Amino acid sequence: MIEIYLFVHPFGVACYETEKKLVDFIQKHHQKINLQICPLVNLTTNRAVVQSSDRLSQDKTAQTAFLAHAYSAALDVKAAQLQGKKYARNFLLKLQTAILCHHTAYTPELVEILFAKTGGDIEVFREDRKSNLIKELFWQDQEMARNFQIEKQNSAVLYNYDHECDGLLLNGPEAVQVIPKLCQSGYEDYLDSPLCNLKQGNGYVEQSISSLKLL
């Protein structure tokens, strides 16, 4: 079994593309793969998304609203996850499509409409969304990102339980592109890669391709 923790900004275009590719890969792959979406919203990830937008990068007022909406969307995702990972992934992709592709304004009404389309229980979602538990789960994701030394959005931690190997940290969009290959071939093909600089010590191997590490 393979477990993937994917750290994304809810409104990051590159994150959206990565999610779509991974969901498509998982649906076609024969092996059991659990994909956990972890919303990563902080000043650093938000600034990266803002800087990629000509409109937002020039409008300070819009930037403040954008951060608030991104945080709210992250809480929406955590509420959706209480009904299952697939519901949450489906919901987030619908929300991203509306926001990023159709340029729909983020509103609580939009959130409820899109979650209802996933087939989840909208009444339970409304109640969960108001609970303090959702905020606690969000901050747990932020803490996990710090513990994993996640440096940027569109990063992942991958565990392949079919191989006797530690978790693999993939920092950044270039690194996460190798996830399908890692799932199919294991880590061994990457241990001798010229991109990797292996360092053995303190009971663990650190593998850095500027973005790839064994935890």
Record the SSE blueprint.
Layout: E1 2-8, H1 13-28, E2 33-39, H2 43-51, H3 54-57, H4 60-81, H5 85-101, H6 108-116, H7 122-129, H8 132-147, E3 155-160, E4 168-170, H9 173-176, H10 179-185, H11 188-191, E5 197-201, E6 204-208, E7 212-214
Parallel strand pairs: 1-2
Antiparallel strand pairs: 1-3, 3-4, 4-7, 5-6
Helix pairs in contact: 1-5, 4-5, 4-7, 4-8, 5-6
Quaternary structure of the protein: single chain
| Straight-line N-to-C gap | 18 Å
Question: What's the average pLDDT?
Answer: 84
How many strands, what sense, and barrel or not for the largest sheet?
A: 5 strands, mixed
Overall SS class: alpha+beta
Output the radius of gyration: 18 Å
Strand arrangement across the biggest beta sheet:
2-1-3-4-7
Give the fraction of residues assigned to helices.
40-55%
Continuous helix count = 11
What's the overall geometry?
globular
Secondary-structure element series: EHEHHHHHHHEEHHHEEE
Number of strands: 7
Low-confidence stretches: 192-212
Proportion of residues in extended strands? 15-25%
